Amino acid sequence: MAARWKNTLTENDVTPEAVYLNRRQLMVGAGTAGLIGLPGLARADALEPNPWEDITEYNNYYEFGTGKEDPAKYAHMLTTAPWSITIDGLVDRPGAYALEDVLAKMKIEERIYRFRCVEAWSMVIPWNGFELRDLLEMAGVQTAAKYVAFETMLRPDEMPGVATPVLDWPYVEGLRLDEAVNPLTIMATGIYGKDIPNQNGAPLRLVVPWKYGFKSIKSVVRITLTDAEPPTSWKKANTREYGFYSNVNPEVDHRRWSQATERVIGGGLFAGRQDTLMFNGYGEEVAALYQGMDLGINY
Ligand code: MTE
Question: What's the CA gap between 188 and 200, in Å, rounded?
């Protein structure tokens, strides 16, 4: 097994205050309007995590409504305990695993990741979670497996949004197996060291930081190992606009908007727009997965 991925973005990486203030003076001198056009200043990658409020009050979780504030308003209706995850398909040890039994075996760590939604906004989120590959190893992936399919809980009584057929419920997602076992891919259980709030996908959600946010499926109840590409909710809803891969890519625009830049959520020094990074800045870790593939076709 490959070496564990080293979390290079920690709270210690937050730009030291002196540098921060200096840079601000620089920018005031340059004029903020010129920010995007200035080489080297096109992105401010201090990776200061967004505050708790940004992360937990501006959400996409359509099972609770399509408004950004709906999940924070209604997701408390979801019962998240007890919770079990069914792992099935091409695995040696299929079954329904109680979440507490899974968590007892997993190593929870902090990962501060950029998070980029396909709607062209971004945040920086300090997740707590474990590597998906450790969970897959627990279930024993068979050699015929090529893909991993994921499914969100579907409980119409607790999810007011599913009364509207915006998507074909339950929400489903998928990864290629090599993407799923990449050390960057985690199952998140917390944010800022606290239990993950329901609106962010409690009690367990996928986080794939180099892909658009909709791949990071929430409140997962089933993980299935397959030999064929699994269906994914947004691709089913609109194949022209959403592909299976959905890697963050400034050069491949959405059919209806540019992906070259992104709106930075929250106030602060770098509020506004910034350039989108290829693979959301994780190219060093993941570019090899797509060698030889045309990412314009495999969007
Ligand atoms: N998972 C489910 N089950 N339902 C959803 O509507 N929205 C996706 C993704 N996971 C979604 C989901 C989208 S579009 C994004 S951008 C992220 O969750 C948002 O995650 P956040 O609310 O924690 O920022």
Answer: 10
